Each structure stands twice: as C-alpha cells, then as structure tokens.
Amino acid sequence: DRKRKSKSIQRKLFAAGVFKRARLVMFYIPLRGEVDTHDMIKAAQKLGKKVVVPVCQKHTIDLRPCLLDAPVQLKRGPYGVYEPVVAQYVPVSLVDLVVVPGVAFDAAGNRLGRGKGFYDRFLRKTAATTTFVGLAFDFQIMPSIPTQPHDVRVHRVIAA
Questions:
Q1: What is the pTM of this model?
Q2: Alpha helices in the chain (DSSP H)
Q3: Region for residue 74 given its phi and psi (left: phi exceeds 0; alpha: psi -120 to 50; beta: otherwise)
C-alpha cells in the first residue's frame, strides 16, 4: 500500500508546474513509514533534474543540501538518516524545490516534524523563490496542526 500510494504521490508531484520548472530539487531519503522517495529521485534524475538530499550537521543541528549523483552510495548518518558517502554540498540559494517529509500536515501547510527543527531552520535559509512541497499519506492530513512562531509552512501538500 505504501509503495502504491508513493507512486500516486510521485505522479501528482511530477505533474505539478513547480516540479516541471525546477532544475535543482531537494528530496529526502525516507525514514520508515514516510512517503517513499527512492523512485522519485531516480525518475527526476532521468528527467535531467539535479537532485540534492539533506545532510545533517549534528554539531550545528543544521541541514545542508548535498548533490546525489548516480551511482548512489549512501551511509547511515546522524539520527539514522541515510546520506551520500561523498559530500558535495550545494549552496542553499540554488535549490528550486524542497520536498519535505512530515509526521502530519494540515490544509494550511502547517507541518508536524520529528521535533528537532531541522527543516524549519533550513527552509528559512532558502531563496524567496524556493517552493516547499510536503509529501504525505492521506491519514497524515489533519484538520489542524499546532504551530509555534519558528515553524515554517509548506506551500503545498501532495497526498494519496
């Protein structure tokens, strides 16, 4: 079911104008239970998109976009999140589209993450033209999400 719904979400994302226009897309490497982005990453690369993934800087509690070239070689990083073995960092300002994971989202684009604020800090550093798209399964869409002043909303949520 997860694979089927992830494929449906991929079709919706790839049909979106914001994805079609994007040259540099930041995907996440999924943790257990998140929308699976592995096929999305491969398909985006085949379409000629440059793909970056977040690399966690544990000492600063920061994310940095890191180029994901084929063949992909990953290692387990801090907090169990996979990241490229060879880090080729890209300036945050070059990222056109950030695909954002979440535990839950609401219709206003509010997002419940895993509690450390990595994405909130990262999203604040992007260019004003960067678009944030959350990926979710239907059961992760809530009527409302409690927010705090430091929380950053996504511009759109794609769910299946």
A1: 0.95
A2: 2-15, 17-21, 38-46, 118-124
A3: beta
